[in-house]
Amino acid sequence: MAGWKALGDGKGDRNETRSLNGFPELITWVYIKATGEKSAEMVTDEGAIYVTSNRGYNWRAAVQETVSATLNRTVSSGISGASYYTGTFNTVNRSPDGSYVAVSSRGNFYLTWEPGQPYWQPHNRAVARRIQNMGWRADGGLWLLVRGGGLYLSKGTGISEDFEEIPVQSRGFGILDVGYRSKEEAWAAGGSGVLLRTTNGGKTWTRDKAADNIAANLYSVK
């Protein structure tokens, strides 16, 4: 977006603000998304979501409390690993309809937020291994990557805790990101140049051997 201005007093780190809707003075932005010509959203590592509709001149908070505060209320409800939460997200991804999915820094659970909700909703991970990354499919469902390799897709659309593992040929390397171009076509990228493609919505994946000789990790699909 054109016309971005730094938030803060101009004397230090651009992420530092005196106070923003009651959240801590030191703010670390982990996700920024322009949602229109005059609108944008920003997410902090504490789970604060800020939205603007006037090119960034004014921002309002979309959630009422930090993730740490939410977990303090819900830790007794059975969210495994919530007591070990370090206050930061590992990854954050936004769907076209404005919903968010975030993975805890340890990868032992994940959180979701939909427009209008007052706070993030924590979810137990549905797989044995810790979560590497999560995001949205083009049909509105979720994809999930686990540490050490492994791709899972949620059953149905929308937010779900029911996932099924999808066989992939990653040559033993972990997959780090997935990106959908349409409901049928998507790409997955990972360690040591792993590049996979699906043309049937994720049911089967084939390796693009053109990337086999890339001596580097592919961290993101754009």
Provide structural commentary:
- This protein has one helix at residues 67-74; strands at 29-34, 40-44, 49-52, 60-61, 89-94, 100-104, 109-113, 121-124, 131-136, 142-146, 151-154, 163-166, 175-180, 186-190, 195-198, 206-207.
- It has 222 residues and is mostly beta strands.
- The strands form 4 sheets. Strands 1-2-3-4 form a 4-stranded antiparallel beta sheet, with no helix packed on it. A 4-stranded antiparallel beta sheet has the order 5-6-7-8, covered by helices on one side.
- A hairpin with a 4-residue loop joins strand 6 (100-104) and strand 7 (109-113).
- Mean pLDDT is 84; it is low at 1-23.
- Residues 31-222 form the Photosynthesis system II assembly factor Ycf48/Hcf136-like domain.
- InterPro entries: PSII_CF48-like_dom (IPR028203).
- This is Photosystem II stability/assembly factor HCF136, chloroplastic.
Architecture of the domain at 125-221 in CATH?
Single Sheet
Order of helices and strands: EEEEHEEEEEEEEEEEE
Report the mean per-residue pLDDT as an integer. Answer: 84
Number of helices: 1
Short overview:
The protein is mainly β and 222 residues long. Helix content is 4%, strand content 33%.
Which terms summarize this structure?
single chain, N-terminal domain of TfIIb, 222 residues, Photosystem II stability/assembly factor HCF136, chloroplastic, 1 helix, mainly beta, disordered N terminus
Lay out the secondary structure:
Blueprint: E1 29-34, E2 40-44, E3 49-52, E4 60-61, H1 67-74, E5 89-94, E6 100-104, E7 109-113, E8 121-124, E9 131-136, E10 142-146, E11 151-154, E12 163-166, E13 175-180, E14 186-190, E15 195-198, E16 206-207
Antiparallel strand pairs: 1-2, 2-3, 3-4, 5-6, 6-7, 7-8, 9-10, 10-11, 11-12, 13-14, 14-15, 15-16
